[in-house]
Amino acid sequence: MAKDIPLKFEILTNQEDDEYLITARREIEFFLQSLAKNGSLIALYPSGSDDFILTTLLKVGSTGLWVEQSNNPDKNKRLTEAKKLSFVSSLAQVKLQFISEKAAVATHDGYPALFLPFPKSIHRLQRREYFRLTTPIENPLRCMIPDAKKETFHEATIMDISGGGVGLASSEEDTLLAPGKTYTDCRISLPDIGELRCSIEVRNMVTIPTLNGKSIRRAGCAFKNLESSAMVLLQRYITAMQRANY
């Protein structure tokens, strides 16, 4: 079972800020809508404070967000008096965070809420150590990798998968996958979910001996510019597998 991600706001280095920053409004809206749909817990901090409330995202609008108020009036007051707020949540074992401008008291469907302006940017902290799903041994996932002419597909077994990439296994004689090479228009069929299309870059390659005296080649691959629609399918699959194995 996946470990919980601590909902603590992280101070990022300049390199991390560039690597994890999302500024495209469509992308930001997609992740926020997913938080609302999943009922994900959100930690809301007055910036510079360790005090926070746990809340949920009620609605994502064109101008901003509505979140539940706390049952503690003093905490609500501190949030609305703060000039900035830190917003931290997680989606499919990936932390999401951003700094919000001043919150305002509001209502949603007649219930007390807080309104936050729509963020101009958001950090999606996709780190490998958060979660990597080991795929089923029986009926494993397969990654179909097209040849150079896009005419035929080479099949590789998926050993593990995450929002960042896949671990692929092939026979020792298989020389298709090469470190540093990128493969486009790859396809992964996710049972009961749909087909994920992606580009992968081989980051590393190791040879692993097996009990029968043979060896397999394991390739650690990163997704390249994975589209939002593909990320939705992947998140649904990971969530379904987590529930099934809980």
Question: Can you walk me through this structure?
Answer:
- This protein has 246 residues and is an alpha+beta fold.
- The chain has two domains: 14-125, Pnp Oxidase, Chain A, CATH 2.30.110; 133-245, predicted glycosyltransferase like domains (Thrombin, subunit H, Beta Barrel).
- The protein is built from four helices and 16 strands.
- The strands form two sheets. Strands 1-9-6-5-2-3-4-8-7 form a nine-stranded antiparallel beta sheet.
- Strand 11 (142-146) and strand 12 form a beta hairpin.
- The radius of gyration is 21 Å and the shape is elongated.
- It starts with 13 loop residues before the first helix and ends with a helix.
- The relative contact order is 0.13.
- The mean pLDDT is 85.
